[in-house]
Amino acid sequence: MTRSVGPALIIAMLAACGGGGGGSSSEGDVVTKPSPSPSPDTVITQCGTFEGIAADNVVAFKGMPYAQSPTGALRWQAPLAPDCAAQPVLASDFSPACAQLTDDGAVASLTEDCLYLNVWAPTTEFPTSEKKPVLVFIHGGGNQRGSTDLEQLGVQLYDGTRLAGASDTVVVTIAYRLGALGFLAHPALSAENSDQRSGNYGLLDQLAALEWVQNNIADFGGDPDHVTLFGESGGARDVCSLVASPLANGLFSGAIMQSGGCRQITMADAEIEGQNIANAAGCASVRDASCLRAATPRQLLEAVGAEVFDGAFVGNNIGPVVDNYVLMASPDEVIAAGAHNMVPLIFGTNAQETGNRVALDLSEAAYEALVLTQFGPNLGNLILTRYPAPAYTSPTAAYVAFTTDVQFICAARRVAQQAAMHSQPVFTYRFSKSFESTVLENFGAFHGIELFYLFQQMSALDGYVATAADQRVEADMASYWGSFARNGHPNGVEGVARTQWEPFSPTADNVLMIDKETTQVSEPRASECEFLDQFSGT
């Protein structure tokens, strides 16, 4: 019998997944590689020898550094190439999470030494002579929280073991600086360099990790010419920034954005917010960064604070910024102009993104008050006319539909339309599969739920018995993501019958609906999106 997972655990899951130049400045010492490698589970990289742990037909290498520790004088600097270990390193444990608070403001980690990555590779003939495609994952958390060893419902959600095996790919997950340590833009920091920029240190970390992949992944059996980025929520936001960044050119061959945005703020706005953060940390000077550099990680984290939740809406006060270096313009504008990295793209959202952020018993009066408070009487009444509570199964369902459309579905559709105006193939999906238990079905396909299926974790969840439909969805996602990494499109696995995923185009509003039965449809929220598109610039 299927057992329910506690609603408190589910409600906490969105917080873990989040809201929305080459980093290396030197190559470091190069290790001369003997041939062959000492053992099947040992890899000699350009900067050190690492011993992996084999299990379930996959060998895992955890906690490998891709950059020096960004501490001391390296805080708020581009990452430098790591120091090379003289002796083999047992890569058996995840690195500590980067400094961050929990969603309620408690300290989760104070670690600044956190620039590490993990690799999972199928063990059949490891390392294989025929290189496998690579999937590189950027975790969510609103660029303020998250880690590669995130635990949810009794599993390490981003463990790549099952995904690597099911998709026959090499899977990489990366850690990157978060919050004020990863994204603080401030006039005093900008003044430290000739081009007057600051912020985006977390994106520079991700670029350095991608450079590491290009330089080393072949030694793990991966193909550096077939590297697909995928990220969820804040991680998808970062993937879109990398798609738009000239510094990422040539570092990946495809990108998947799962429930994340593409609009980033200007340096001027980011520096204003940075000054507010500095003031909260007790550093009022806009010209001298010495106070900021002397601040402890805890002071900086608490100065940013936890994310602010207003009903279903999440307010991020720190993240990627248009700095005229990593980003020349907001990613949505770069994509609209066709100036982005021309690689195949997938944009995806979930059917009830905000389903675990809204009270299940929201009254009609409370629903209307929320909308009017957030959008004012003019726009608010237009929204209530387009999303009337009686047209849905409940006022909660109406609010979830509206907030999911405005924050996720329609925003992703607009960027997909812009991208599809150019040459690379574009695909879109809607994840609609909910957990099959009495309690969890009430939340629908909420923000982040697809990660449990993509990482093949359904059979390991605490208190949940995976159904045949759950297992089919897991297999579908592994097949589509693996095929996309391998071929530049999500179809074409020989001997596997999957629903054909048709490309999205300005004239073909195709969406793959991933559910108990996966189907190809025309965008079911098109009329709602056309209504919301009128206000997308406001």
Give the topology.
Blueprint: H1 7-17, E1 42-45, E2 48-51, E3 53-55, E4 58-65, E5 89-90, E6 100-101, E7 107-109, E8 116-122, E9 132-138, E10 151-152, E11 155-156, H2 161-167, E12 170-174, H3 179-183, H4 187-190, H5 201-216, E13 222-232, H6 234-244, E14 254-258, E15 265-266, H7 267-280, H8 290-294, H9 297-304, E16 308-310, E17 313-315, E18 321-322, H10 331-336, E19 345-350, H11 364-386, H12 395-420, E20 426-431, H13 450-454, H14 468-487, E21 510-514, E22 519-522, H15 526-533
Parallel strand pairs: 2-5, 9-12, 9-13, 13-14, 14-19, 15-18, 19-20, 20-21
Antiparallel strand pairs: 1-2, 3-4, 4-8, 6-7, 8-12, 10-11, 16-17, 21-22
Can you walk through the features of this model?
The protein is α/β, with parallel strands linked by helices. It is built from 15 helices and 22 strands. It has an 11-stranded mixed β-sheet, with helices on both faces. A 3-stranded mixed β-sheet has the order 1-2-5, with no helix packed on it. The protein has a two-stranded antiparallel ribbon with strand order 6-7. A hairpin with a 2-residue loop joins strand 10 and strand 11 (155-156). Helix 11 (364-386) runs parallel beside helix 12 (395-420). The longest helix is centred in the last third of the chain and has 26 residues, at 395-420. The relative contact order is 0.13. Mean pLDDT is 89; it is low at 1-38.
Summarize the structure.
The chain is of the alpha/beta class.
Strand content: 15-25%
Radius of gyration: 22 Å
General form? globular
The secondary structure category is alpha/beta
- Helix percentage range: 25-40%
Mean pLDDT: 89
The side-by-side strand order for the widest beta sheet comes to: 3-4-8-12-9-13-14-19-20-21-22
Number of strands: 22
Distance between the termini: 49 Å
What is the count of DSSP helices, taking H or I runs of 4+ residues?
15
Task: Detail the poorly predicted runs.
Answer: 1-38
Task: Let me know the largest β-sheet.
Answer: 11 strands, mixed
